Batch of 4 targets.
Target 1
Amino acid sequence: MAHHDPLIAQDIKAYLEVQERKSFLRVFTCGSVDDGKSTLIGRLLYDSKLIYEDQMAAIERDSKASGTTGEKPDLALLVDGLAAEREQGITIDVAYRFFSTDKRKFIIADTPGHVQYTRNMATGASTADVAILLIDARYGVMEQTRRHAFIASLLGIPQVVVAVNKMDLVGFDQSKFNEIDVAFRDFAKNLNFTDIMTIPVSALDGDNVTTKSDVAPWYKGPSLLEFLEEVEVDRQSLETPFRLPVQWVNRPNLDFRGFSGTIASGTISKGDEIMAMPSGKRSRVKDIVLYKESLDHARMDQAVTITLEDEIDISRGDMICTPDHPNEVADQFQAHLIWMDDTRLFPGRQYIIRTANMSVAGSVTALKHRIDVADFSEAAAKTLELNEIGVVTLSLTKPIPFDSYLNNRTTGAFVVVDRMSNRTVGAGTIDFALRRSKNIVRQDFTVDHTARAEQKGQKPATLWFTGLSGSGKSTIANHVDQILFERGHHTYTLDGDNIRHGLNRDLGFTKEDRVENIRRIGEVSRLMNNAGLIVMCSFISPYRAERQMVRSKAGDGVFVEVFVDTPLSVAEERDVKGLYKRARSGEIKNFTGIDSEYQPPRNPEIHIKTVETSAEAAAAQIVDYLEAKGFLTIDL
Amino acid sequence: MSQEIIARIENFASRYGKSESTIARKVFNDGKTLTRLRDGGQLTPRTQEKAMAALDTLERDAAGPLGQRLTHLDRLEAESIHIMREVVAQCENPVMLYSVGKDSSVMLELAIKAFYPSPPPFPLLHVDTQWKFQEMYSFRDRRAKEAGMELITHINPEAIEKNVGPFTHGSAVHTDITKTQGLKQALDAGKFDAAFGGARRDEEKSRAKERIFSFRNEHHRWDAKNQRPELWDIYNARVQKGESMRVFPISNWTELDIWQYIYRENIQIPGLYLSAERPVVERDGTLIMVDDDRMPLEPGETPMMKSVRFRTLGCYPLTGAVESEAVTLQDVIQETLLATSSERQGRVIDSDAGQSMEKKKEEGYF
């Protein structure tokens, strides 16, 4: 294919040696939709003769069927590989392409521009050294340009090249180019790029893509490819602290116990003293094993197996570092979080937090603010929707060794996985550890009901479902319980089934017994509230006075009365358990609504009219109420 | 070459203040060879290679921790090893799909490296079509044994029962029953929650889009438009019962990288990649090797002996040979680099329709 070096034919061995010595760069393209990202990559591949003849023939054939470029071959088709992408002429998911020049080998990730596929853009960006940000010369900096620049900066990409594309459509107008250059630099001064380069290009015609074009003599800089070949990537220096996240313990027999992992930063040599975190235990490096070789030294990015002089307990999830610069260990962080799922973030819900070498349960206990990518302003928010970015407090169920993302792109990164769907729903970067949790432990700390609830990421509540027999109390309560449970909340439901058969088996249905029944249930619910739980109580509880008694015991801001309002005629007609029939025939005495009174609540917190509301909708209404009143988050 | 070795020994000795004879002893394992070389003596190619490798090690270790360099291949190797270890750490019951080709050979070698000195802690699975080249079967059995790994082979019972083959049923039906359906049966039977595959992103357009950890639902289907985000080298292999992961540890390798690595590491590959006189017939412009007597010859068709080799290996009736004189690995690499058509061109499966690979992948093909 594009291997056009004459050395191949002359001396293949020499050629292979040259190849081995080439440097290596990972790049990704981003920018707004239709700015020409796929076309630009197609152009790079095409101009560097990296397309096989049969592939090119297929492109020419497909260009006629679905191309968007008239007579010219549609080079975007080289990259857009999914049927849906080719049909719609858009990029949905990131595509990885490979090419090399005399100087460098490249992996280039073509990422989608549409806002709904931002998660795929972040996927492509996370492993890159350089971002190529495309801007359509006609439209300048757009919201997606800003979003992508922000994400690239957040992910720690040091170098951005702004390719001002479609310059052919503005007649290679220098003032147009300068305008965009100034506008981009102005907005990017709030970001963390160490270097910004702007280049005027036409991906369609190839101007300034691989070679300098004479259509814009006013532009004195390099072509895009020349720049990519030369750019010094500020890869982490080898002098940074040593970090080996332990991935796997290698124990083939009693004589060998090795710790396998990819070195995240720094170097290590035989004989060096090491420290294992979080235990803090020390030993020395006995050997560095890479297959049959024993290395004297190893460095960042090498996947090795290390053996130690002493038998110390190290397992997957631990970090091996050196005693002069050990990791921090903490269980509560401030972090930046990009949300990547159609289902929004539920603060308080328990998710799986996955780091470079471990997974641990954790939750977002506070959402400090959402970041508006249009102007980088901070807005108060209760949740993060798909593609939104926020600053959060992340609490884990056990402490982990870590670094800030700024210091280490491997040991400071994490993804968020949903426990139920197993989808990767978010990605985050650790800013710093919050000392709060540690301080509390050191002080004389009593475990009170607030602390118990805080640990569960919620505020305790008693949801008191009252209504006639057969009104739908238990059905709705069960729905609510299920929703809260799935969100990681800690709940329990008390109803006739689990109370009447046990705790209250000695009680009947006389008025006195009904009062005592409710009193006991109120006490149980209060204990559970103290333990931090959200409790659903589903009982007819016909008398206002008893409900008031439970309310005053539970305390303000804990008791939530839910009136499940079903007219007697409807409940009787439903008669799910056949009780009304038996009551009417006199078989059951003291039946509420028939021969015993029901006193409807006067001011319930939630009033559900089941005739016009389904059980699911009622449950959603109740969960919304809890959310709005702050029961499902905690204040920090 | 001898001059280069002498020069490297001299340089090394003066740079690190050691005597030349000390260094020479480390390089040759004796004290006389250096003198013999200076007097115009010759080395066997094997000794030369060993001496160069010994010098590489000496120079590497002497460079100190901050002087360690990683080549492109070193980086790719490390990435693949990281991926394999992650699967073993996260998944309960992984398996490695082994298709006997050069990519499988590299993947197997990487697995041996990743877990050394332990043998790779998972079995190999070969989904057999009964129509592979005979040489592939013997190579497969030998390599599995050498690696100390269990080899599971699976043939779709329906294919045996109905005697399915490309000549009688056509390539599409044959591939679907023996490969796609066969693979699903084998994965279900083994209850594997992760399966390594040797696919590369540079092979084909829909593969360029696939994640390294690629989720499959309980019907083994790939949802191309709804893949899990995959950031950094943090991989999410969590699945429910019945669902699984396809994992592609050599996603980021190109065909050239594969050949370079085979060359550098001296990896064993089936002899079919090298040219030899083989009996072939030409059909629709493709050279098909007559590997056994199951191949029906058309009227007037007689096998001709030609010097041919294969750029990819699959079912022999579906794999086109190329005429070539490349008899060594170096020749093959040279020819590959000078080729003007892509390696999958020899595969009948890809040219059916523009998106045939994507469709097959969605249905559960690798």
Note: The two ends of chain A are 60 Å apart (CA to CA).
Target 2
Amino acid sequence: MIRVESLTKVFRRPRAFSGPLGPLRTLVTRRYDERTAVDGVSFEIPEGEIVGYLGPNGAGKSTTVKMLTGILTPTDGLIEVGGRVPWRDREANARAVGVVFGQRSQLWWDLPLIDSLRLVGDLYDVPAARFTGSLRRMCDLLGLDDFLHTPVRQLSLGQRMRGDLAAAMLYDPPILYLDEPTVGLDVMAKQAVREFIAETNRIGRTTVVLTTHDLADVEALCRRIILIDKGRVLFDGGIDDLVTAYAPPRRLVVELADDETRAFEIAAGSSIPELIARVSAEHTIRDLSIHEPDLESVIKRIYAESER
Amino acid sequence: MIRPLAGMARIGLRFQLAYRSDVIMSVLALVAQVFLLRMVWTSLYGGQGQTRGLSLEALLAYLSLANLQAFATSPIIPRITHFRIRTGTVFFDLSRPTGYLPQMAAFQAGHTAGGLLMLAPAVPVVLLVGTITPTAHPVGYAATLALGYVISLMMSLLICVIGFWTLETGAISLLYRLVSHFFAGTMVPLSFFPGALGVLADALPFKYMGYVPAAVYVGHISGGEIGRAVAVEVAWIAALAVLLWAVWRRAHRRVVIQGG
């Protein structure tokens, strides 16, 4: 469904000079600063898959999504979405993708939610009967009925997000790009968003590219993740493989009689009872627990390694 | 193609109606302005019959009409574009199957329609203050006004596009508003402008938003001059279309390459 090969995007900005005459120099010189936001990224996503596209701030995630939507043209490399080159065939591509940004809304701030949803129906020329059906489904799935006629500026963040999800899916695009869809939401709202994504994917076989910093989203929804940093792919594969390959060792954490807490790494293949016996021979143990590595510690470790 | 534009126009209309209190204030300001202009000009005329071919009655009618028109056609889209570029929501506009400029043009048309709807109660007052009587050139008036509106719309779109470079249209919009209202002749008819200023006002396209249609209405422009005005308006529209297309292409290239 989505094929990206050696995708590269270089931004070129006039060099800014500092000092009292800096702005003038910036204006008259023809010197540029180049910044490579995406650097030779390749991946393929088959139809119906939910993929987590992860990376720290500034890793190149949003730039990739913008190229996938056809808003940005790549500097180099190949990009194909549903057999089309997004930036060359922007209009057809636009009809095939839905986009949600957690940080910005496509809803008209001063108007009731329903006005923005109707506008989407008009812009994508959704036939009246299909629109009514889609809207009904969205209302049921996302519980929009209570605030359909409320101006968007009066909605809570969770309600607004649900409105944005509906707007992105009203014309049944086969591909959905989600950029931090749960940012700032409370636990219940996050749950509602995740359920909607899972449901959309299950019913419509919608292909989903999910960008997020909330690894709980990834654990709940994705089986595969693509990890990028500084514009390069660091890992592409199943979450289980990632944990096996990169997981730091499990740790035995003991609380000692004198209120001191100490942690011991459990080497792969070593016996835990033996380790406990060894520790308790030297200290008086009041409590102990074994810490399993979580996805977060795994990813932290990969980022740290790529820094080196 | 029609349905997306109708949808955008409806949003423009709703947007206008959502800011009712704003419009009511503007209508009050409009009525006050027409009233003040009437006082100043009545005193200036001081009982003279005609000045530069305009009777006091015709002048007052002209001023009321020109101000009504300028009010009704004042643009909203530079403000919208500015806001949407600054917040990044312009991304969604650019990702639609319909082009950005048609979307904005439709929004403006809907917004203007909403303005006219809310202006309706003020019209009798303004007409009364301006002592306006039916025109002898209804067709000429409608034609010059409609084309003038298209010119105004295209100028607004041009400011929107400039926003893609400057990322700021607030100051430009304000300047545009002042310049366009002045050169549209909302305070003083263009035929009263002295020397070089008159030449400049005559050369600029702003007069088609106020002066030309209003002068046609009161009979200050008549006969073959109306036809000539319409022809020049059409030429302006063609020229602006080319300019807009060229500027938009550059702006769009900037967006797809630099990401705004």
Note: The mean pLDDT of chain B is 88.
Target 3
Amino acid sequence: MPEVVEKKDIMSTYLKLFNENIDKISVASSPIINKFRNSAIQDFEKKDIPSKKNENYKYLDLKTAFDNKYNYYFNQSRIQVNLDEVFRCDVPEMDTESIILINGWYGDKINKLQKIEGKAIIGSLLEAAKQYPDLFEKYYSKSKNLEKESLVSLNTAFAADGIFFYVPDNVVLEKPIQIINLLISEEDTFAQPRNLFVIGKNSQAKIIICDHTLSASKFLSNSVLEVFQEENSVFDIYNLQNEHNGASKVASVFFNQNTKSKLLSNIITLHGGVVRNNVYVNIDGEHCESNLYGLYLSDKWQNVDNYTYISHNKPNCTSNQFYKGILDDASIGAFNGKIYVSRDAQKTSAYQANNNILLTNDAKINSKPQLEIYADDVKCSHGATSGQIDENALFYLRSRGISEKEARFLLLYAFTNEIIKEIKVEVLRDRINNLVDKRLRGELTRCNSCVINCC
Amino acid sequence: MLKIIDLHAKINEKEILKGINLEIKAGEVHAIMGPNGSGKSTLAAVLAGREIFNVTKGEIIFNGKNLLEMPPEDRARAGIFLGFQYPIEIPGVSMVSFMKTAVNEARKYKNLPPYSSSDFLKLMREKIALVEIDSKLTNRSVNEGFSGGEKKKNEIFQMAMLEPTLAILDETDSGLDIDALKIVSNGVNKLKNKDNATIIITHYQRLLDYIVPDFVHVLYNGKIVKSSGKELAFELEEKGYDWIKNEKL
């Protein structure tokens, strides 16, 4: 049987889980990962699971998500999934062999690291730590801002596996790579994937991460992704979050940008009970560009919370943030976006916008921009709106013979389009358009060809 | 075709229409003129089914149907078209999908099968040529970033696509330069036939040089105070509205 987390005092539960399993985890792991564990668990104990008292988590209830009896998979072998039977994703032209994570573990037990287009490497984090210790050590747990999140420390303490992706210098990957992140278990399960991506100098890559739940159990996932972009690299990352509403997730991503690098991140949240996205961007070189997009469509009791922190440390960089949401029923959303501009980061341009449509009186959105600017020659702007469907536009469409229901749908769909159109992978854009269409019509949003009902 | 009987309407407890009577037959063009605030646009909006106006009294019969009981979409499907004074920009909704949805909804209402994509595009090309609008406009989102003139031309294009029985053009001439005015009025004239009718709401006589009305009505203070042939428009142009106001007093 997998290890069981007892339901008692929440903090002591997780400390006990650590103390009882640390030897087992460490033996199977790499010294590079192990050396961070003790200080991480101490840091987690000191800072605790974020509560609503924490200003950055004011609108999110994580205690309930953590206060549950979960299984924890300490190694890969216990998971029995026949992927051919349960999951087939057929987004056309997504021609890479699908990279799959199951409950935080790399899915392929035989080819633990594979070459992409003959040049880049993708595969198991654990395997990479063993096969490429020097490269791995240079980056692992080296992101700026990791200390800002206590749950990152919890992840670091337990870190076992996840995805490692390395693009050497001067390599342009033509095709996007898709990572399918699955949660599947007969019992309630806690998973903590740890991922590390390195995009070398002058290199370019696109990653698509699809999060799914494949069984009805409760899930808690606390993932960490570190991304290092070297000079003049271009990286696009899309995350489609489509877990069931009994799943809770905290996904923390740390982007570290070097000179002249370009980043595009787009997080689309369709389903998931509690969803918290932390996106940290640390800009440590001149002439960088960072574009962060997000779209959340929530209903019922969903709680979707997006937090961004962009740190401009060098001059002449641009960041754009554009998050939009449609909230139905009694769902609660938050957008909390911080822009930090250091004294040296002159000629910074930083923009932020968050627009929301509330479909009921019970739905809530809390939008909070925060600017902290120490340079004097910068252009920064932020704006947040929340409102209802535009009645003038609704009447215009109806006056042309379009039913009220269809007109509302068209307007909501159009509202989402501003985010979806920023998806540069055409097949993915079409697929997401299709999923958003279904989501707005209240249909299930499983992918057509997927035989599993994910939500 | 259309019969308006003693129509009263208010918004926020303020009465705007105070007993309108008007009858329109197939093949006719009616111009409704009047000073600002007389209720012209309200009349247009009430005909189209705008719900912010509260009809307190009266009837509107359109081809035997009680219009006031119908939601705006059903009025449109039954053949009413309102050309907006201020067409709305709808970013993210393409002109093509907008018009395709609208045209097929109307066809469904008439128990006709929906157009196939190729038939629809063919129809669109025909109408683009007919009303002389730039075909690039139809590749964009509805009215997004259109100039004032482009928006008005787009209204006429939509009218051409929907082929209404009764078109109500609310201040379609406002903000148009002379070239745009000609294109818009040519469109309206080409679409005119013996089976449909047009109501032109305008402040100025200028538009009526291009679209010749059979009847001109003057709306003042929520009522039609004068109805006559097209010569009334010239008289109004010459004398302004004051003489009517004075005549009323």
Note: The longest helix of chain B spans residues 95-109.
Target 4
Amino acid sequence: MQQRDRLLWQVARSTGGWTSLFLAAALLDAVASLALPMALAAAIDAALGGESTGPALVWLVTLLAVSTLAQVAAELVEATTAARATGRLRHRTLGHLFALDLGGQRRFAEGDLLNRLLQGTAETAKVGPSLAGAVVALLTSVAGIVALLLIDPVAGAVFLLGAPVVWRLARGFLGSSTELTERYQTAYSGLASRFVDAMSGVRTIRAGGTAGREARRVLAPLRELRHYGEALWNTQRDVGWRLAVLVAALQVGVLATAGHGVIAGRVSPGELIALNTYLGYAFGVFRQVGTLAHLGRARGSAAGVSEVLNTPAPAGADGTAAGPPLPAGTGAVSLRGVRVAEGDRALLDGVDLDIPAGATVAVVGGSGGGKSTLAAVVGGLWRPDAGVVSIDGMPLWQADQRSVRDAVAHAFERPVLLGETVADAVVYGDRPVAPEALRGALRDSRAESFVERLPLGPDTPVAGLRLSGGELQRLGLARALCRDARILVLDDTTSSLDTVTEREVSLAMDRAARHRTRLVVTHRAATVRRADLVVWVEANGVRAVGSHESLAADPGYRALFQQPHGDAPEDIPPVAEPRTMEQA
Amino acid sequence: MTVTANAKPGGRTLLRPALAAQRRSLLVLAAWSLLEAAPVLLSGQLVAAALDRGFLAGELAAGLAFLMLYGTSMVLGAWAARHAVTPLAAIVEAARDALVRAVVQARLAHAVQGSGPTDASTVARLTRQTEAVRQILATLLMMVRTVVFSLGAALAGLATLLPEMAGVTLGCLAAAGALLALLSVLFRRRYREALVAEERLAGSAGHAVSGLRDVLACGGAGTATRRVGQDVDANAAASIAAARIGSCRIGVVVIGARIPLVATLAMAPWLLRSGAVTPGQVLGAVTYLVSGLEPALRLFAQSLGNMGVQLQVLLRRLADHTAGPPEPPARPGAVSPGPGHIPSLSLRGVTFAYGPHSAPIVDDLDLDVPYGDHLAIVGPSGIGKSTVANLMAGLESCRRGEVALGGTPLAGLAEPWLREAVALVPQESYVFAGTLRENLAYLSPEVSDDELARAADAVGLAPVVKRLGGFDAAIEQAAALSEGERQLITLVRAYVSPARLVILDEATCHLDPAAERRAEEAFAARTGTLIIIAHRISSAMRARRILVLDGQSVRVGDHHALLRDSPLYADLANTWAAAPAGTRA
């Protein structure tokens, strides 16, 4: 069984009781509804025949009551089942997501992942009632056709003759509208990406007074949108018209045949009315075209969700892995034969490295060489595909993951702030942080001054806050510093700070994190000079380890600090004169 | 519609102008829909006639003739339905156009005035919501006309066939309407709560997903699971609560259509015996009740309520986003100085803070920048250098004090003149999808290729122009260019602009020092005033004068004077200069 079908089966089974209840209610409703036209026919025939309608009416009212109650029950059970199953599946998916390591997280794009977590789970969870509903609908329309054949075989045959034509037309519409819908959506995303473009240049637009022109530029795809929108309507109109004519012909044909039956004595007047109603049920068979597409969608969603759930999570779904906590220590890290791959591409290969306890280690190298991957591996954010990473002598992937989180703190180039307020965002995590530690961390990361200038200080909500790159980085640093971790992994955390602030932060950190092991990914020569040890990462491996002075003999190493961070145009000749400043 | 009638003004005003402009289409739609209801109106009558005068009378030909008539009326209805699509499409597409236009214009205006979120997720949500409105509006319009006209036609047909029952049915329908109104009030509340819960979940889940790495790094899996999990549970509970009310709505169908049916059948023997009605009439009446009234009522009760509420909630959400930012205060007597006007810039006692309680970022700043000056502004990050640039360009207004250009306060200058006279190039370069020329001529649409080529050469963009293949080269995605290339494009854009005051706010930070020098020298040689927020000390050393900001005091001078007088400047210069010492080892 494929993974997606296994997930669908699991969901269907976990809601089994409720789904059976739904099936029972839906079936009861279907049976009562199918019996109704016959009861109606009996009542009509009794009335027309001058007999008492009493018994037929009692029968009719009973059926109406049963069908009404069954409908209410089915609707309630369906909604409840879907909501509960969706909730359960979302909890499961969330738990798994938060247990993924960086390698697992990076398999999915952000928007896509959110879609799987929200829409995907909801569609998947509906599978039980959906399937049951589809079966009941199919049975009802088949029963309608059978009833037609039973009441008047000739009229039923007329219906069966015309049905395939209608079915083909309905299917054809589904195909052509899918293509137009895709084009329509492409035009829409064109407009949205122009919109996003413009949002990234608001300061330029504002300074240039060009907002009006920008609106026109963003809205340009509106014409195309309208074109495809109208084309969709036209298709729908033409198919709808042909379908309606066919259905009318079919209905008149069936009724005429049955009318002839009334004269011939085959059919009673009441049965003629019943026939008309059954015809309505029989037409329901064409709606199954949509149901099939719907079930296909549910299967697609299940595939998306199960892909997430089947991404291996090293930490275990509850964020812990069975294992003893890390031993007490001073933060010595060792890597042996570490390999990290993404698909077929190795991000790190054959890495052996020893980071002495309490040392400040700079990681340098060109972009894409594997610096950030190394930082993530050292801190236990990324489980290597091969090799061992140990902290104070214990392989960290065999330890309780909570103790690893306590031992290592990370800061990033572009941190994402979690939590409601700025203060929340700094102390975010399962372990509480003392208020003094928060204040100290804000001070040491030089975030204190701008946080105080925020409208509500540290209690300012994060949502809607516009922070510069440097401010964000300082909050990210504070988040790493407020925890008493023995190892600090700082991945390019000061790239947006000017040199003076960067130096202030470094000095404060030298004081605050004196005894901690520090792994600093950086592009700045000044930072490198202050490190005890430099790890030069190049081409997905460690190229050299040593002091800044010893490595500087290599021209390739010196070149690392002679290009500005990021890629400058290649056509610009290198500077020949003595250089008088540091490049950020 | 009881459901949509109570929409808050915000939501209604959003759609009303678009619908008002489509009044003709609405009338055409109504006319075709009226015709479309013909088969419903005729169905009972024709069934009655086909039976009474045809099949029950043993007249096959007459029965078939009436049935053919019925078939014809169905085809006629379908034909009308076909024609109804065109005005319907016109209304819906026009409404979508109007909504998208309103959203884009308002959000751009907000973003430009800095009064709203500008992230990509907002954009994505807004486009999704406008599309949802389009679909719901289409379905709603289609259903409304079906319900209104079928209900009316069935009732009218019943009245002509069996007036006694029409009265009973009307009473039942009134009771059903009252029940629906009551349920709608409850349902609307629950449904809105469910939508709010869903949005909250989308928000918290979206945030957690975008910060998965950070959740992991902070050891916050438990916290994140708990916070998002709460929203998951709230969302499920709200959906169930809404469904509970929703499932009661079938009562409307029972009261409105099924009670009249039972009543008709109970009365039928008596009516038939009295000779007041024929068997065909009874069957016709049943046809009206079963095939006309019940489906229309079911549609009304089950879907219309949902959609009306959904549309209303969506429109209200969108209305929050399409309300334009407060109009900038009118500038009576705003002047546009003539072309020969020489703008010297002066700041007097300028004070600025973001919030009423936050510490001022700029406090009592005095500064004169004569026309043609070359000024550099230096200071630690976060000290408010960009704010000063915004104040000088008139993008922020100061809390106290005054910024004047050529002696006229910025507030007294005509906005278009000011935007043309001052060019501000921010650090984050704005390059959009389009040709290279469109990007370069952004601030001076009339500029010639010769001028562009000269500017590209002066600023250092020429090799990039060559690599891309000339000014007509299409830039499909800004991300395909390096940061440095993008900055060069925005620099040339400002260089060819008519501006006589150019402010570069760290606009060269992604260039290497040589490229930066070339670009800055080009700007220094250009006619007009140049103000540079320095990213490196070399920018300051090239300037004629330097302004040092340190949060408390402000000093102005040249490099040597400041090295002597400003400890902060000396520190900045030393750190900047000392840094590469090791790299020369």
Note: Chain B has a mean pLDDT of 82.
